[in-house]
Amino acid sequence: MTTPQTTAVKQYLQDLQQRIVTALEQLDGKDFLVDQWERAEGGGGTSRIIENGNVFERGGVGFSHVMGSNLPPSAAANRPELAGRNWEAMGVSLVLHPHNPYAPTVHMNVRFFIAIAEGKEPIWWFGGGMDLTPYYGFEEDARHFHQTCRDALQPFGDDLHARYKQWCDDYFYLKHRKEPRGIGGIFFDDLNELGFEQCFALQRSVGDHFLDAYLPIAMRRKDTSYGERERNFQTYRRGRYVEFNLVFDRGTLFGLQSGGRTESILMSMPPVVTWRYNWEPEAGSAEARLYSDFLIHRDWI
């Protein structure tokens, strides 16, 4: 078995964070803050944060590299073979919440995990993906995002996009609401069957395609005129984002249970959110069309 090159993965992830932040700063016109942090149990990271920018009301692009000897329950529950091993987890995770309700929220994550014990083969895997959460749906945006996701995976197998799209649809689903969080994208985890080099190449391809997937959409929508109605609907729908991240998201649970830095873990939360009791959109409205035409499992390409 090829020995995982953890240093190469870390270097790639740190470079990816910087490339993404540089592109987003050019789009927004405001610099991201730099917040470096350390974790008492081992490791640390760098959170890059923007608040009240020209395009982004809030956004975070975080790199973390944490390590320890006792896995949190969210990671160890279904992997008893990891017991007693030292572990490392590293990744880049981002969430962007634009001001404009016509510009979608986006999430991307690429990560690597390895657990080591003396005299035994290392246990490792990659995971990640990206997904789009619009408040007002545009078919050209949805097609572009999903096509770029497919382009990222195409070199690694004709069947991967269908599998990872379905995985994303299933994962980013609010069971208590019986609705998707957004229009999906791709999601994968526990990836090691291709061997280290190919798995690492797949992760790089996903990370490298993020800007191609999202920037054209943000540029198209960031200056669209909107009013109080659109803003109210945006903050209402953001509530679904919060519900998913706090109730279902494995990354959030892993971060909190492993003693990660709370501010960096919860940087994904939107800054302004509203909940309303038993609210329904007006029939035939653009808000209703989001539910009927976009918040469904659909083949966009």
From TrEMBL:
Gene Ontology annotations of biological process type: protoporphyrinogen IX biosynthetic process
PROSITE patterns: COPROGEN_OXIDASE
Site, as annotated: Important for dimerization: 176
GO molecular function: coproporphyrinogen oxidase activity; metal ion binding; protein homodimerization activity
Residues binding a divalent metal cation: 97, 107, 146, 176
Keywords tagged on the record: Cytoplasm, Heme biosynthesis, Metal-binding, Oxidoreductase, Porphyrin biosynthesis
Active site: 107 (proton donor)
Main subcellular location of this protein, as a coarse class: cytoplasm
Keyword set includes Transcription regulation: no
Entry's EC annotation: 1.3.3.3
Subcellular location: Cytoplasm
Catalyses which reaction(s): coproporphyrinogen III + O2 + 2 H(+) = protoporphyrinogen IX + 2 CO2 + 2 H2O
Region of interest (Important for dimerization), residue spans: 241-276
Pathway annotation: Porphyrin-containing compound metabolism; protoporphyrin-IX biosynthesis; protoporphyrinogen-IX from coproporphyrinogen-III (O2 route): step 1/1
Enzyme class: oxidoreductase
Cofactor(s) named in the record: a divalent metal cation
InterPro entries: Coprogen_oxidase_aer (IPR001260), Coprogen_oxidase_aer_sf (IPR036406), Coprogen_oxidase_CS (IPR018375)
Residues holding substrate: 93, 109-111, 259-261
Subunit structure and binding partners: Homodimer.
Recorded family membership: Belongs to the aerobic coproporphyrinogen-III oxidase family.
Function field: Involved in the heme biosynthesis. Catalyzes the aerobic oxidative decarboxylation of propionate groups of rings A and B of coproporphyrinogen-III to yield the vinyl groups in protoporphyrinogen-IX.
Protein name in UniProt: Oxygen-dependent coproporphyrinogen-III oxidase
Organism from which the protein derives: Oxalicibacterium faecigallinarum
Chain's gene name: hemF
